[in-house]
TrEMBL record:
<dbReference type="InterPro" id="IPR051538">
    <property type="entry name" value="Acyl-CoA_Synth/Transferase"/>
</dbReference>
<dbReference type="InterPro" id="IPR032875">
    <property type="entry name" value="Succ_CoA_lig_flav_dom"/>
</dbReference>
<dbReference type="Pfam" id="PF13607">
    <property type="entry name" value="Succ_CoA_lig"/>
</dbReference>
<dbReference type="GO" id="GO:0046872">
    <property type="term" value="F:metal ion binding"/>
</dbReference>
<comment type="similarity">
    <text>In the N-terminal section; belongs to the acetate CoA ligase alpha subunit family.</text>
</comment>
<dbReference type="Pfam" id="PF13549">
    <property type="entry name" value="ATP-grasp_5"/>
</dbReference>
<dbReference type="InterPro" id="IPR011761">
    <property type="entry name" value="ATP-grasp"/>
</dbReference>
<dbReference type="GO" id="GO:0006099">
    <property type="term" value="P:tricarboxylic acid cycle"/>
</dbReference>
<dbReference type="InterPro" id="IPR036291">
    <property type="entry name" value="NAD(P)-bd_dom_sf"/>
</dbReference>
<dbReference type="Pfam" id="PF13380">
    <property type="entry name" value="CoA_binding_2"/>
</dbReference>
<keyword id="KW-0067">ATP-binding</keyword>
<keyword id="KW-0547">Nucleotide-binding</keyword>
<feature type="domain" description="ATP-grasp">
    <location>
        <begin position="523"/>
        <end position="559"/>
    </location>
</feature>
<dbReference type="GO" id="GO:0016874">
    <property type="term" value="F:ligase activity"/>
</dbReference>
<dbReference type="GO" id="GO:0005524">
    <property type="term" value="F:ATP binding"/>
</dbReference>
<dbReference type="InterPro" id="IPR003781">
    <property type="entry name" value="CoA-bd"/>
</dbReference>
<dbReference type="InterPro" id="IPR016102">
    <property type="entry name" value="Succinyl-CoA_synth-like"/>
</dbReference>
Length: 740
């Protein structure tokens, strides 16, 4: 009885990572293109994972060596079964770990010692469980993977697909078309990743790679993204994310994909509190704010979708349509009703149908005849009844028009042979191949693909075929937005001064475990980072307060200074519109009395006397440390209306001035800054300066600052200043840094 071994005849993949490729890319290549596969824990118990994976490897004719290992068996599945790695006829390359969790760690170490380069741990029973033993095994497994250097997916995963190698180390027993495709799929949930692959296949979209990463004790989804970005056979990267553990790794992978011109289409768990809780329960991932994920990842070429159906349409769109040169839409329909639906759907999404060029309009008017309405979208239905050639000629005119960037055709693929429709589709596909612009078919509703439809779809590589009007509109909008991203994403680094960084370290050390810096210390640090601050000084006595007020000039504001009082207004710790010495003295005494009456006896460090700035607009600028994505800055409408208006936008830190302006432009407050309804433009430069400074501060602090709140940031035509500021510390991180 012989093992299935044939390394000599094993086909080599047409692409090999270059010598300067990262170690991660090289190791993943070894995993997806192995010389042989070893199944450790082979058993022929009916229906078990090992047998299902073995059957798939045989069914799809994997050409490398196949070796089962089970110390208690001499033969299994009609071939030789080996007792251990040492008894194999050749060195192991890719190892499938199917033994119980308590044995998995040793298998990884033994596999590496025997010369294996990669492994997939299908076994569960690690960090996804909360008992002490499972958590201990998870730690030991991560250590073993780190020490051995193996490329490992899992544990708690369902295997992988590498179509170019006929490799399907997966339990899925549905039919798989083993044809190399332009899409790569990876993610932590095996069931979801497998469903995505199946749905794409049902739509005639080929999947070249599918990798289920499970608990990600070794390789993480961003590692796979980096590999797919490097492999020239891949055009679109699809990922399912339950959490981002390595922020830098994720962002670097996004940048690599962006540089390669490959969109990353992401379905991200954590858009709700319930979703974030589910992520924690499923793989132990720490899911952060979805708004923060969007703010940071979108800049680097990630398209986040809200569900599986939207994911499929968006993937289909990007596989078959290049990003357009602009956003000028054109559409052809054979129905006035559907024309109306197109207009409503695209206009609701903020997209417009462009005026056609004079030449195109003239051609259409001449062809359609006197009395016809030439519009965009074009309803060619009535004219096409009289002369069927009008339909195809209308499409040709739209595609050739230099004033259109995307051409949409309201039609679906046939479910059965149809000579005229098939001919028309192939003609349009040939037009699209020469057009240098996306040509996209849309069916207003989802239409199931028959085997005939799937086969026909594969013969039309240069047109996108989308289903469901709303999802199609979302996919096209993503295509346009991706095209509008800056061609390169530079590595933006903090531009702060050495003196500012030194003050940061001094302030964090002086905090000595406090929850936050008080207002004076916060503003001193903000000022060092270039954030404009109002004129102010701390008074210890009422007389001193009056003297400071006279120096600044009336009116002034009086505010309590205490590291123990974070929300000063709530306790009557802020008094506005002080226009005389008597009013300043009274405010000083009133605030002091209120603080002394508070429970807990908060520490009173004085009363801040500050310039009262006349504002045309109250803004909020702030920053926080997101659980997944790291430091992020915020801009929007501030003051007491911040919760009511919810007019804020986010961006990753640090920012340069151009990105700060882009952030401002995404808000209603940004519109007001430019001058709204005849009002003069406000001092936007101060807001830009504040955002850049805040982002530098967060970047320099690493994970030691939890949040910064500057609300309000008052702005008028001449200046903008922070009149309040609070820096909340990440105590554990700040304390650890101070100790060193």
């Amino acid at each position: 009885m012989e093992a299935l071994a044939s390394t000599a005849s094993h086909p080599s993949h047409k692409w090999t990572p270059p010598t300067d490729a990262s170690d991660i890319v090289k190791s993943i290549h070894a995993m997806l293109h192995p010389r042989n596969i070893v199944l450790v824990g082979a058993t022929d118990k009916p229906g078990n994972y090992a047998e299902r994976i073995w059957n798939n490897l045989i069914k799809y004719k994997y050409a490398g060596g196949l070796f089962p290992i089970n110390a208690k068996r001499e033969a299994i599945w009609g071939v030789t079964c080996y007792k251990d790695f040492a008894s194999l006829p050749e060195r192991p390359d890719h190892v499938l770990v199917l033994v119980p969790a308590r044995f998995a760690v040793q298998v990884i170490r033994d596999a590496a010692a025997a010369g294996a380069r990669s492994a997939t741990i299908v076994t569960s029973g690690f960090s996804e469980l909360q008992d002490e033993e499972s958590q201990r095994l998870a730690v030991e497994l991560k250590q073993a993977i780190k020490e051995t250097g193996l490329a490992v997916t899992g544990p708690n995963c369902l295997g992988n697909l590498s179509a170019g190698e006929n490799l399907f180390t997966n339990i899925d027993d549905r039919i798989v078309t083993m044809e190399p495709g332009a899409v790569a799929v990876a993610g932590q949930s095996g069931a979801i990743v497998m469903a995505i692959r199946q749905a794409l296949e049902d739509r005639g979209v080929g999947v070249g790679y599918m990798v289920t990463t499970g608990n990600e004790a070794g390789l993480e989804t961003p590692d796979l993204m980096a590999y797919f970005a490097a492999d020239p056979s891949i055009r679109v990267i699809v990922v399912y994310l339950e959490g981002v553990r390595n922020t830098k790794g994720f962002r670097d992978a996004c940048k690599a994909a962006r540089a390669a011109g490959k969109p990353v289409i992401a379905l991200k768990l954590g858009a709700s509190e319930g979703g974030r809780a589910a992520a924690m329960a499923h793989t132990g991932a720490l899911a952060g704010s979805i708004e923060t994920f969007d703010a940071i990842s979108t800049r680097e070429g990630v398209i986040r979708v809200r569900g599986l159906d939207e994911l499929i349409e968006t993937t289909e769109c990007f596989v078959h349509a290049d990003p357009p040169k602009g956003n000028r839409l054109a559409a052809v329909s054979l129905s006035g009703g559907k024309r109306g639906l197109l207009i409503d759907a695209f206009y609701s999404a903020g997209l417009n149908f462009a005026p056609l060029s004079p030449n195109a309009s003239e051609q259409l008017a001449k062809m359609l005849g006197p009395g016809s309405i030439v519009g965009n979208p074009l309803d060619a239905g009535f004219a096409a009844v009289v002369d069927p050639s009008v339909y195809m000629k209308s499409i040709e005119i739209m595609i050739d028009d230099p004033d259109t960037d995307i051409v949409i055709i309201d039609a679906e693929l046939p479910k059965a042979p149809h000579e005229l429709r098939e001919r028309n589709l192939r003609i349009v596909n040939d037009m699209a191949a020469q057009a240098n612009k996306p040509v996209i078919y849309i069916s207003a509703m989802s239409i199931g693909f028959t085997e005939f439809t799937k086969g026909l779809r594969k013969t039309l590589p240069d047109i996108a075929v989308l289903q469901g009007l709303d999802r199609a509109v979302g996919a096209i909008k993503s295509l346009i937005e991706y095209a509008g991203l800056r061609k390169e994403v530079p590595d933006i680094v903090s531009s702060s001064k050495a003196s500012a960084r030194a003050l940061l370290e001094k302030s964090l050390k002086a905090a000595n475990g406090a929850a936050a810096l008080d207002e004076v210390a916060s503003k001193t640090l903000l000022k060092a980072y270039g954030i404009p601050i109002s004129k102010e000084e701390v008074a210890q006595t009422a007389a001193e307060a009056v003297k400071i007020a006279k120096t600044i000039g009336f009116p002034v504001v009086a505010k309590v200074v205490s590291p123990d009082i974070l929300h000063k207004s709530d306790i009557g710790g802020v008094v506005l519109n002080l226009n005389s010495a008597a009013e300043v003295k009274k405010a000083f005494n009133d605030i002091t009395v209120r603080v002394k009456k508070l429970k807990g006896k908060p520490k009173l460090e004085g009363i801040l006397i500050a310039q009262q700035v006349k504002a045309d607009l109250e803004l909020v600028v702030g920053a926080s440390l997101d659980a997944e994505m790291g430091p992020v800055v915020l801009f929007g409408t501030g003051g007491v209306d911040i919760e009511l208006m919810k007019d804020v936008a986010l961006a990753g830190a640090p920012l340069d001035a151009a990105e700060a302006k882009e952030l401002i432009a995404r808000t209603k407050a940004g519109v007001k800054l430019k001058g709204y309804r005849g009002k003069p433009a406000l001092h936007e430069a101060s807001a830009v300066k504040a955002l850049v400074g805040l982002s530098n501060l967060m970047a320099d602090a690493g994970n030691r600052i939890a949040s910064i709140d500057v609300n309000p940031f008052l702005i008028n035509t001449k200046l903008g200043v922070a009149v309040d500021g609070l820096i909340v510390l990440n105590n554990a991180a700040a304390k650890k840094a101070a100790e060193h």
